[in-house]
Amino acid sequence: MIRKILHNLAENPILFEIFEKIFGADDEKMKIYRQAFHNGNRLLDFGCSTGNTTKAFLDFDYYGIDLDEGCIKYAQNRWKKHSNVKFFAKDIFKKPFKKEYFDYVLFAGTGHHIPDELFVPIVKELAYVLKKGGEIWFYDILKPSKSSPLLAKVLASLDRGRFIRTAKQYDRIFSGLKFIKIAESKVIKVTNTLIPQEDYCFYRLKKV
User: Fold this and answer.
1) What span is annotated as the signal peptide, if there is one (predicted)?
2) CA 41 to CA 102: how far, in whole Å?
3) Are strands 200-207 and 130-141 parallel, antiparallel or unpaired?
């Protein structure tokens, strides 16, 4: 019942924004995401949703992509005054961008929504649009451990994403790919939030 209510909230971009602000710790996410890089070049934000963390990348030539047309329309209206920010309701498997078009790809908070059989194919498509030597910055929540705060466990159990993985699972996935290499990886403890958050993993993946 609760999961159904949360799903309905997520279908409304405005309510989703409010929910993410309170429970998703958007401000803290933007700080964490931005720590991975410093130079503003051409960036693809895969699974950008409503553009709720776009603010952190306004110095980039920013492209957001998501399958949800409602979220994309909301994001387009929200950031319409920024000529360097663009949003597209596109399927990455249909190759909406040219080969080696982006300097960076942000793949954040989306992995736990993707089933195993699609995860590696999606990473391949993201590598296709990435320049050689470019980087994918991957962030995602991790499956709570026994020592995780109770509320973090509850939020994870209610998350719409049904494929929350462990750091070891992501290690196995990324280390087995020949077209990228792990340049950096770590587990991030999310602090300074009103609601306790799950730990995040970070992987800086370099195209070879």
Assistant:
1) none
2) 8
3) antiparallel
Choose between 174 and 146: higher pLDDT: 174
CB 32 within 8 A of CB 92: no
- Is residue 69 exposed (0-12), middle (13-18) or buried (19+ Cβ within 10 Å)? exposed
The pairing of beta strand 61-66 with beta strand 42-46: parallel
Residue-wise pLDDT for 19-38, tens only, equals: 555 454 556 667 777 776 66
* Residue 28 or residue 47, greater confidence: 47
Backbone angles phi and psi of 138, in degrees to 5? -105, 125
Ranges assigned E (strand) in 13-129: 42-46, 61-66, 85-89, 102-108
Domain, as residue range, for 60: 1-207
Q: Strand locations in 26-149, DSSP E?
A: 42-46, 61-66, 85-89, 102-108, 130-141
Residue among 18, 15, 2, 21 at smallest CA distance from 155: 2
Q: How many domains does the chain have?
A: 1
Tokens standing for residue 60: 């980039």
Mean pLDDT of 133-148: 84
